[in-house]
């Protein structure tokens, strides 16, 4: 039995040894595979850590560099979700790989222990064949289990490799998405730079527009002020034009009256054929008296007005000379003040230099004295500034009043020129009327000559028709007397109208002269006040100078 079983056992032992060697080879291969898997897992873990750090940095940079809040929030949320998913998958895969690795290590240890036991049992195989057979059965079952476990480990390894490939593909996709995100961020940065440039340009344009708007507003205000001035000037011109129109209308009325009178005189010429020399002499005497009176009154008013204008101009020149004298006195006082200040400063410096060598108490006394002197100088300066301000105000008032007087004088001159023109027009009208009257007188003389001839011719007929002729002549003389009375009344009315015009002119001239005299008196009063103020200022300056000289 033992001999028969000996080759079988030998064969079984050899097979068992072959199986054990094969299992050892498989175990070594599985160990190497596990080592490779471990290295790959560690590499994946390190890569995941690096990628996580990179993603965190990029995420922070994108958060810091993001321009649009909505887009950055969406991108960050999507990236965070993807990264969280990938991290969860990596963690789960890591756990699975670690579990498989631990289970494979446990199986390898168990198999090694079983191999050692089998070796020990193989050494004792000759002794216990029954135990060997049992151990063979147990080892077969265990080998089956190990094969199944190895197949499961291999399948797990394949799954892990597949999952790693999938993770690698996902990581590549994430890298692509990160690159695209980086590109988007760069595009956003470029757009942000462009927007910043546009914003700067828009700010510059806004500043330019603001400056142009301010210039336009200033020009508009200037134009509005000019328009107000022009509107005032236009109103004044319109008022003057209306006054001129009224005066022209008055002149036209006068001219129409003159034309009517001329027509009346032309009509009357037919009735003045039998006018006598007495009527002509009376008319000439009345016309001469009226012309002389008008001319004398006009000359008197012109002389008075010219004399008053001369006096006003003299007073203005005197006031200007006084103002210039005051300015010169001001300059002299200022120069004297500067000289005194310089002298006092020089003396004080010398006294300081001399007193530095002396005692300290004297120096303090002199410094106090200097402080008091400087305070007084400042007071004098303040008084001087106050006096200068008052003087400026008075000069401004004086210049304004001079300008007002000049404007009044110009208006009076214009009024005078207008009155002169009206006087000239009226004198021309009077001359025309005088010429017409001279012509009428000449015609009257002609008719008087004819009357004389008729009287000579009618002397022969007086004897025959004395009574009838006398009655006709009396009736004719009555008609002539009536015509003379009507003409004299018309001439008297015309002379009265001229006298009324002269009286109105006189009243206007008186009013203008009185107003002008009042303004001149006011100006004289103001000039006297200014003189008094200047005297006070000069007295105060002299007092200050005396104090300064006394203190020095």
TrEMBL record:
Q: Which GO terms describe its cellular component?
A: centriole
Write out the coiled-coil annotation as residue ranges: 13-54, 80-177, 220-254, 295-343, 377-443, 470-547
Superkingdom of origin organism: Eukaryota
What keywords does the record list, in alphabetical order? Answer: Coiled coil
Share an example GO biological-process annotation for this protein. clustering of voltage-gated sodium channels
Stored InterPro entries: SCLT1
Q: What is this protein called?
A: Uncharacterized protein
Lineage at the top is: Eukaryota, Metazoa, Ecdysozoa, Arthropoda, Hexapoda
